[in-house]
């Protein structure tokens, strides 16, 4: 058991986590479309989210890791068959190579072991499948548009549920997207022929999860390995596999002073890791590195939540605060909004945590980061409304004047 107690050991553990997520190097996966393909293949998924006060999460996560990434590239990867859309711990884009590991959940829904919708309308589902088979891909909007315009179509709400049930149980796949309008087609017409579509055993599934989580996080707790997966058989198989690998010396354990235990590959903490730079990153609340909030608190001592689900009167930092990463620390959080009609990015509240830092260097890093982030939002100007601590506000506003 490796004891992680000294500050330098904790710092190295954090660097391992950030390096595994591709957040230390300027272009760990390359750039543009090719870089986006490699990034999602490495980190395992990108969560899809509808909130649009700034660029949506599934684009933001890739932007944080891939220079010259553009939002249109996400749908291009979907059209090219590089990724597919399904449920991870939430709606997500996943590497097409991992398709077979979506099958256990689909099969459980189709067989009624678990429910997406209770008592699905199987007659309506069969009619929808037949219509898609004969007429081609369909959008849920098409159902709504044809309620009164065309005989043979159905009430929109039941039909939409039937469509989603067919998607969740694997009969349909998303073949195209325009914003949040998904187009569905038969799985056999969407899935590339070379993709492995064989149902994995629970042991294969467990091995995939352990290997993937160690690759994209650097280390993981037993709980973190099966984050939000409620399959008891899978959790048992993961625990068994971890114990086997520990006995075989293929994994080792590290313990923080808090008592939290992580597993990692032998020698992972001694590997050559990218150095910390003065680059600041503005991350999505749904970024893969922050989504496991308990891990975030334990490893980075960063207590974070999205306050869009908190009543306005009880919000402390703002509607949609974004984590700010600087030199291996989550140094701040920022609530902002892209006013797209006037191409302006408003920083409503910038809150720095209690860190001992060089204020001049941090302000310079923030200006560079917000400039890049503003361009990503297609905003030509930036303003700051409030900041904490207050004595930083003047320096920040002066530094932001050229962007105003």
Short summary of the structure?
The protein has 404 residues and is an alpha+beta fold. The chain has helices spanning 7-20, 32-43, 57-63, 72-79, 103-110, 122-135, 140-145, 156-168, 187-190, 202-217, 222-225, 232-248, 293-300, 359-376, 393-400, and strands at residues 2-4, 46-47, 83-87, 91-95, 138-139, 172-178, 181-186, 252-256, 261-264, 280-282, 321-326, 329-339, 344-352, 381-388. Strand 12 and strand 13 (344-352) form a beta hairpin.
Please provide a written account of the structure.
The chain has 404 residues and is α+β, with helices and mostly antiparallel strands. It contains 15 helices and 14 strands. It has 3 domains: 2-99 and 199-270, no CATH class; 102-190, Arc Repressor Mutant, subunit A (Orthogonal Bundle); 280-403, Aminopeptidase. The chain has helices spanning 7-20, 32-43, 57-63, 72-79, 103-110, 122-135, 140-145, 156-168, 187-190, 202-217, 222-225, 232-248, 293-300, 359-376, 393-400, and strands spanning 2-4, 46-47, 83-87, 91-95, 138-139, 172-178, 181-186, 252-256, 261-264, 280-282, 321-326, 329-339, 344-352, 381-388. The strands form 4 sheets. A 5-stranded mixed β-sheet has the order 10-11-12-13-14, with helices on one face. The protein has a 3-stranded mixed β-sheet with strand order 1-8-9. A 3-stranded antiparallel β-sheet has the order 2-4-3. β12 and β13 (344-352) form a beta hairpin. It starts with a strand and ends with a helix.
